[in-house]
Each structure stands twice: as C-alpha cells, then as structure tokens.
Sequence to fold (1309 residues):
Amino acid sequence: MSPVPTTENPFAGDNSGIQKRETIARWALRVGSYIVVIITVAIMLHIFIKGAPVTFQSKWPFVNTQFLTELPATLHVIEDKQGNHYETDVNGADAIKKKLGDNFRAEKTISYSGGGILGPIVGTALLVIVSVGVALFLGVACAIYLSEYAKHGKFLELVRLAILNLAGVPSVVFGLFGLGAFVLTAPVFVDVPADRSVFAIPLGFTTLSFEGWDTCVLSGGFTLAFVILPVIITASEQCLQAVPQGFRETSMALGATRWQTIRYSVLPFATPGILTSSILGIARAAGETAPIMFTAALAFKDKLPWQKDLPPLPADASIFAHWDQSVSRFLGIFTESVQALPYHIYTLAAKIPQNEYAERAQYGSVFVFLVLVASLAASSVLLRKRLRAKYRW
Amino acid sequence: MKTAILTLVTTFAAALSLQAQTTLRIRGSDTLGAKLVPQLAEAFKKQGGKVSFDIAAEGSSTAFTNLASGTAEIGMSSRKVKADERTLCRSKGVSLTEFEVAWDMITVVVNKNNPISDLSKKQLLQVFAGDIKDWSEVGGTPGPISVYTRNTSSGTYKDFMGLAMKGREYGTNSQKMAGNEQIASEVGSNPNGIGYVGYAYAGAKGIKIVSIGGSAPSPAAVKSYPLSRPTFLYTNGAPTGTTKAFIDFCLSTAGNAIIGKAGFVPLSIAK
Amino acid sequence: MDRPTTPSRPPLRSVLLRSRKHTVLGVDPQHLIRWFFGGNASIAVIVLVLIMIFLLREGIDFLPTYRHELQTYRRAGLEFCDIIDQPLQQNQTLSSSLRQAISASLETLSKSARDRRDAAFLLKRQIEDKTTRTSESLSQALEKTPPLPPAELAKLRSEVQKAAAAASASLTYPDLFSAAEREQLQREFAALTPEVTDLPPLLQTLAADFTAKDREARTKFASLVQAQEEFEAATEPLQAVVDELKQHAQETKENAVEFEVLETNRLRLLEAAAKEKDPDEKASLIKEASASFTEAVNLAERIQAITSRATELREQVEKYAQVIEKAAAVLPTDAGTGVARTMVNDVREGIPVHAQAMRKAAAQLDSWRWDKPVSIFTVIGAFFFGTSWITNSSWQDFFGFVPLLSGSLVIAFIAILIATPVSVVAAIYTNQFASEREKELIKPVIEFIQAIPSVVLGFIGISLVGNLIKDVSEWSWLQWVPGFPIQERLNMFNAGCLLAFMAVPTMFSLSEDALNNVPRAYIDASDALGATKLQTVFRVIVPAGISGILSAILLGLGRVIGETMVVLLVAGNRIAIPDFSAGPGAIFQPAHTLTGIIAQELGEVSRGSSHWQALFMVGIVLFAISLLVNWCARAVARRFEPHKA
Fold:
C-alpha cells in the first residue's frame, strides 16, 4: 500500500477542472464531517428542550429542588369530570380525591415517575466513590511501575497487552465477572459461613468465608473499578511521562533513591494531571449500566442507603464510646443495594409507558444524568488544557 | 495498633453481615410489582406501617430464586410455584407459604386501529404459536402480525402458555418485552401488533382489548373469562412481624380497595 | 533501581549511602516498593485471568449439564415425539399461505364492503373516545340509587348529546362513503349515547353488507376454502397420536427431573446428618431425608409405551402424507388474484416436499434409540450451531447460539457500514482540510459523544429514533426502499444507527491518529511532484494510513459487538435468525443479541441452573470475541505498518 514510485506517473492527467473537483471533494468531506456534529447537537437539543423544563423553573431558586431532592415514587394522576388532570403522590391523592368529591372521575398510577431522583443520584455517587477510589489506587500504582520502573521485556509487553485487552472487554462481561467474583465469591467475615461459601478460613474469633458480598455498592463499585482501570492507567501514565526526564535525573544525581525521586520529583508534578484525567474515569463509571445490573442496582428503593431504622445509639455516651458501632453503621452504607441513575433510566425506558406523565421523569433524569456526565467530561478536558498551559517545560 | 486493626476487622465483619431488620425485600412478578405492590406498600406505610420497602420486579421466577437464597422476605408471583421451584426452595431450607392476593386477567390487546375485536381460542393459539402469520388469516386488514410476549421469566409468559396455548411454544417471530407497559406501548405504536398484558395495563393509550371467543375481560366476568388466573405472594414459612402485617394489610378490606383500583380483581369478588 | 553492588563504584558513594540503608525483614525497602508497584502493574493481567476464571467457573459446567438435559430429553422420549412433531409444523406454514390466499381471493369481492364497515366502526370508536367523559358521568348517574331527579339527568343527557354532536362534526369522513352516507353517519353518531345499546342503522347495514359479500365470496371460492380446511384437518388424527405420546413423555421427564432434585437433596441431607452432632437435629435431618425419597423412574419401561407406538405412528404418517398429496392434486387453480394464485401454487409444490419430509421423519423412528448416549460433541454442536434459544419452556429448553450471534453480527455490520464512511471522512477532513476554528468545533463535539452514556442513547432510540425511522418509512416517495414501510420501531437498523453513532468517536480519533502518523516526507514528496491537495490526500496519505484506519474500524467493531444497553432497549428482542429471504429489508426486523440476552435474562434465573450456565457460556464467547477483535486490530496495524521514513 505504500506509495512505491512506479514507472507511470500517478499524477499524470488532465488539469482541466481540477480546481472544480477539488472544491467539490472538499465540500463533500466537509458535509460528511458536519453530519456527525449536527446529529449530536440535535440529540442534545432534543434532550435539553424536553428535560430542562423539569429541572429548571422560572421562579426562584430556578432549579426544581423537588425533582433533585426527593426519592422516586409512584405518580398518581387524578382526573376530574371536566377533564382536568392533577399529578400528585400517594399522600396528595387522597386529599385531592376528597376535595373533588363527586367530581372525581379516574385515577391512574405510573410507577417510578413521581417524586424526584435523589435516590439514584446518591447511589451513583456512592458507586463512583468506591470505584474511583479502587481504580485510582490500583491504576496509579500500575502507571508508576510502567513509567518509572519497568524495563523492556516480556513482563512489560504482557502488561501492556493486558491493558489493551481489558479496555476492549464488553461491559456486560464485566457484569458477569462482578457477579461471579464479588457478589458470589468475595471474602467476608462471618460467624457462620453460608452454604454457598466456596471455602472458609476459620480465624478463631470469626471466619473468613468466600461467600460473596451480595448485590451492594461494594460489589458494584469494585466491578466498575475494573471497567475504568484501563482509562485510569493510560491517563496516569501519560501524565507521569509528561514530567521531564531532567527532574528525575536531577533528583537521582542528588543521591535520592528511586522512590524518593518519584515521591518528591515526579508525583507532585503529575498528580494534578492524574486527578483531572481520572475525572474522565468518573464520567465513565457513572455512565455504565451493564456492570451494575447484577452487582448493585435496584429498580426501586424508598430509602437512602443510610436510612435504616436502626435503634439510635445511646444518647448519654459520646460518639467515641460507640465508635465501633458508628463505624459499622457507616460501612453499612456500602453493603446496601442502591438505585443508580443509569439503571433508573433503563427502568424508566423499558418498564413504564411512554406518555406525557412519564416523560417528565424520563427526560428529567436523562437530562440531569447527561449534564452530570458531560460536565465531568468537559471539566476534565478544560482542566487538562489549563494544566498543560501551566506546566510547560 | 494490633487491637485497633482487630476491632476494625470485626467491625467490618459486623457491617458486612448487617441486615436491616425492618426492610421488606419484595422480589418477583412484574405484573404485581410494577403497579400493585408498590401502591400497597405506599398505602401500608401511610396507614402507619413503620417499614421500608425494597421492590424489584423482574419476573415471577425471580421470586423463588430470591426466596431460596434468602435475599427476599416476600416473593410475588403471577403463577403458582412450579414443582421444581418448590423443591429448590425446600433443598435450601425454605418452605414456601402461599397467599392468594388477587385475580388477574391476561388481556389480549391489539392496536386501536385494528378492526379485529374478537379472536377464537384456536386463532389466539395459532397467532401466538406463529401458525397464523398475517392478519388477513383472521379476517383483518392484510399485514404481517407482530407478536409481543413477556420475557421468559415472567409468570404471565408461562400462564399464557398454559391457559391459551395448550403448552405449545411461542412462535419464533415473537418479541420478548421487559414488562407489561412496554408491550402496551409497542402494540400501541404498531398497527399490526398483538400482545398480552395484565388487565391493569389494558387501559394504555393506543391499544384495545380483544375478546376471546366472545368473552371480554371485566372484573365481573373474572370467572368466565378464559385467561383469568390468581396471583400470589409467597413467604418463607409462616410470616411474622412486619411481613405478616403487610400481608394481612394486602388481604384486608383497605388492601382490596387498592387491588381493585389498580386493575386487579380482589378475592372478595373473584371468590 | 540498581543496588549499588558494582565493585567499580567509588567508595565515597557507598559511605554516603550507608547511613540511610536499613532493611525490612532483610529486604531493601526500595525493592519492596518496586515489587509493590510491579505487583500492581500485573493487576491488569490478573483481572483478565480472573475474568476468565470466574466466567469459566460459572459457565464451564454448562456442557455437562446441557448434555444431561439432552440425555433426559432423549430418554424420556421427547426427542422421539419431536421427530414427527417438528416437520408437522410445516403443515401450519402451508395452511397459513392457503389462508392468506383465501383472504386475498375473498377480498376481490368483499374488500370495499369490509373497508366501509371498518372505517365506520373506527369513526364510531373515535366518537366514543371523545365523549367518554360525559357519557361516563351519565351512565354513573343512571345507575345511582335513588335515581337522580329527571332534570339533572336531562342536563347530563344534553351534555352527552352536545359532546357527541361536536365530536361527530369534527371528524373527517373518508371518501369511502357517499355524501348522503356521510351525512347519515354524522347524524347517527351525534345521537350516540350510553343509553342506546343498538348499533346505529347505517352501521348495521354496513355490517350486514359485508357479511353478505363475504358469504358470496366464500361460495365463489368454496373449493379453495374447503381445500384449506381439509388440509388443516388432515393433521388431526396424526396430531392426536403425537399429543398423546408427548404427554406421556412429558410426564416421564417431569418425574425423572423431580427424582433427581429430590435425590440430590436427600443425599445432601444425609451428608449433613452424618456431620451433625446434636442427636435431635440428626434425627430430624434423617427424617427430612427420608421424606425426600421417591421412587426412581423406570425409563426403560416408560419409553416402551412410546416406542411400541412407532408402527402406528408410521402408518398415521403415511396416511397423512397420502391425504395431503391427494389434497395437493385437487387444489383449485381459480384463486382470485395473481398473488393468491402464486401462493396456492407454492403450496401445491410445497405439499409433496412436506409429505416427503414426513415420510423421512417416520423412517427415522426405526433407527432412533432411547438409550443412545449423547456425545459431548453433539452438545457443543447443539450450543454453537443450534438455531433455537428456547428457555423456561414447558416442553424442552434449547440453548442454541446462532440466533443471538446472527442478531449481534447483523447489527454490528449495519453499525460499521454507517460509521466507517462518516468517521473516516470526518477524520480526513479535520486532519487535512479543516481550518483551526473548524477543528476546534468538530473535534470536541465528536469526542463529546464518547461521554454520552449508552443507556441514554438507548432511551433516545426508544423515544425518538424509532418513531422517526417509522415515520420516514411511511413517506410515499420512499416506498421503493426494501422493507418500507416498517412495522417495528424497535429493530436492528435502529440499533445499528445508534451503535454507529457510538462507534464514531473511537473510529474518528484512531483514524485521525493514523493520518497524523503518516511521515511528513511522504506529503512533501507528493507536493513536490506537483500533486494537488486532493491527490496527496487520497493517493498518498490515506493509503499510508490505511493500517491505522483498518485497525480503527476493527476496534470500533469490538466496541459495537460488546455494547449492551442500546441493543437491549432498541433491538426488539426477537430470538430468531433474521429472515434474509426478505432481502435487504431484513435489517428492519427485530433481533436479539449476545449482550442483550445476558442483560435481560441473567437477573431472572436461579444460580447453577443450565440457563444460568448457558448465559455465562455466552459471556465466555463474548469475551473470546473481544480478545480476537483486539488481536486482529493489532495484527492489522502491524501488517500494514508503513515503512517509517
């Protein structure tokens, strides 16, 4: 395919109309490229036009706080005999019906479409915290090795190949993996191992049993961590490599060890870049649905993860007296299944009808979700640009 | 330091084995779980039940898998438990207790503009088994029939097979939809579509009910309609505490009123 | 990185470093740190291996489990019944053609009457829709006890009438009706109230008209109608025998399965009892175990009841074949329309083939052995080449992979076909022609697509694109497009479009990189030879970057095949091999996919069942495909690598 010179001049030909052909071809290419741009903008506009009115309002505080701060609920639509419709929740329904009295005609209910989307937002946030925490720890360490320690060889090649392949694994396969590994097999400390435990290691005071974490934030977060791992590794490695070689040489020349060099001369300059790039990882983790379908997500939950109706801690003692209980309650947040925004959108898209009442929840959630994800992605891009301008070596 | 770590480890262990006692986890049928049970749950909470609900409705089969693995307190099912599921539960030490909560009528729906308004039982079977491929074969406007069924884990899927299809398989041209609402909206937008939904979902926009052999579904005709079936809640053993309170509420007069309003037939009428 | 052990090192340095050299457990901490990072680096390798292990752990048992199931299928005699039952389904297909031919024939006479009737009823329903509210109030009021005062009822009645009149005036009456009829319809509709249960007179006339026409048509094509009925009825005696056998086989299978479950349970309980120390517990476990005991099914005896009927079955098949062959000979040729005649002819030709297939099936009955073991290769073949994926069946579950794979491939093909030109064109344009300002617009927008979560695109597919494609397909000037107008808004083409959109950013940026990597010298050389910009681009730069572009396309393909949410929501979820006999219009059919089936069904099956394992097998195949695509992309990139200048 390479342009090996042949005896025939490939550029021979009549020159008439070349100019015209050039212009036509150029315009054809231009139109081709702008098609994508136009479609993207059209889709965004569509979502904006349908979704923004749900999220924003013309009165102070301009943001529909109810939609953002309430849990999803069933929407009740009550119709009176004049054909007016009232949208309300279960508590409002009775009041309206009482008020309408004889004038009441029909009531229909649409699941998931009432209230707001606080539950899914919180769930997604928890999943992102866990996944990015895990992925950053593993990914940055991996990147440090690749950029600072590794020498050319079999191992390095293997690692690079693995990263490439990991990036190509379908997300639903990650879901299967998470189900097999974290939901059903991961180790937990229990007093009595369950039947399904793969094997159990007695530790005396408790047993380490490989019986899985069940569907919960931890399982989902760890699964997502591996989904975004390649993104984090690649981005971090780029940032590390962008630190000029001279920094390392200077440090080594002063007698610092390799670790001291990394710790004091490389990481400080790479960290901002790593963090901004990892925002991209957050956006990806927040957007994935298939990996959390079987590992963390729930279609409906009427409580936030930390609302558990547990008996309150004894009031007389200070919080430190019961710190183990406090900690256990805090950790308990991560052992709950949660609603997550992408899964919520899936539920809204697949399980409820497409009508004017459901549209509010559907487009509202999509809009909020897209704004969150897109602003994360955009901020990552912008920050990177500013960083690049700031650190110019 | 060591004790601190030990405490942390035990705390973590405690956290991981922590089960919130007052959450009712309900799993199973989409027919029940997408509409009826959430409404019962909301009403139950409103009348003072101090409990939180955790409802996932992916199909009746999931009721039994979740009950068997101990990840649900209540299973909703739009069909009776199958023998192998009962055995599976028994082998996991779960003995199922069954509560009939309401009757449902599987309602065959077509697009609103379809002139067909009645199908014989045989035609119904042939349509869903894929034998009849074109509307002209049953006297409608010519056009290939699009069949929408529920997904395979659904109790409605199974019940319909038993009630209408004499155990025959669905034709390969059938499309599997995630829920009743999705079937309703697809049939509503496809002039050649046919599908079935729970009676509660038959009022959706763009669809109309087809009577079966002249018998149309209505709460009064629940006994004579050929596709009526009871729906159930299942628990592990005899229910206690909040579980019992909730099930009692479902079977109470107040519960029956909600059942009727949600488009199901309460036992008081069906019996 | 290196330990200062080389003897040539100047002594001063080792002296300087000595002070800071402490060891942890005899190991240099620098090494520990290095190992720590190295260990973390291998995480990617470990994760890949773990994915494989966990997929295999849940999925690999599928082959033995499925083999066992197929074995039961054979031993209980289900397979025996299917030998006859499967080809017998063809009768319904032929019947269906005949029924359609009849309907087309009847239409020649009754179409206009039917259209008029249907149109009138449609109009009536529209009126009813518009007046529901008022008429509902009236009917409620009428039912009230004690009855409402007549004045109020009259008010309600007049309201209903007003609404009906308004509605009937607002309707557009089709041209099917004459002016007089339209007027009458409007008058009759305006008088519709819930109290009148009889149909309006004109509607009655229209319905009667149709019935008369239909009867007339049926007499005209009586021979065809009769032929169809006879043909369908011909199966009945055979079907009766098959059904009886099927029921017997089914019972055998159910008993056999129940026995297995109970037996495993019993063994487990006994095992638990053996371990149990508390005597009370032990006794109760043993008691429970003995409760779980059932008699094993005597398969050999039960199968006898089926195989002994083979001769009878063969006779029935022969009788059936003769009857339908006779029916084929006397199939009338006077169907009403050309289409109908072709259909009847097809059936005429199809019947001997069908009869032959039935005879062949009957001949197979002899060589069928209930105790022939199912080889593992049969099982592998049944999975990888099986054409039906039937789960939660009341007869027999089949896990055939082909319908899912074909759906995935067709969708991926559509997506790549759309995405490739678009992204390559965009890459060429931005890389070679675009001004800086254009680049600033195009690049971020295309990269932004990457940030759109797939579930959002799936939602857009359901709520926007599906309806859009459907509406466009109904435009009259586009009817030449195969498959138009389309029926299903959720179909492979819709999914393909969305996936193409998703694949564009990947393919665009990789292609652009490839173009960027073309050595500057090539371009300079081309310019120096006097080539125009266009010539340089298409004869030098693109050929030089072709390897990168190809590998970009392959990576895009990998992304498309692995995508889940869009296909789950948009592809239509019909588990069948697309019917390519419909021509290119087949892309507007719905399909199911490898990824979609996992997402849809995994949440619903019990762990360790054959269905669960089958889904993990699908996962294994998907994983293998992704590795393969990646490998190909790398190989392509290496194979066509241009000679670096």
In short: Chain C has 24 helices and two strands. Residues 78-143 of chain C form the longest helix (66 residues). The longest strand of chain C covers residues 389-390. Chain C has three domains: 63-75+234-395, 91-219, 402-643.
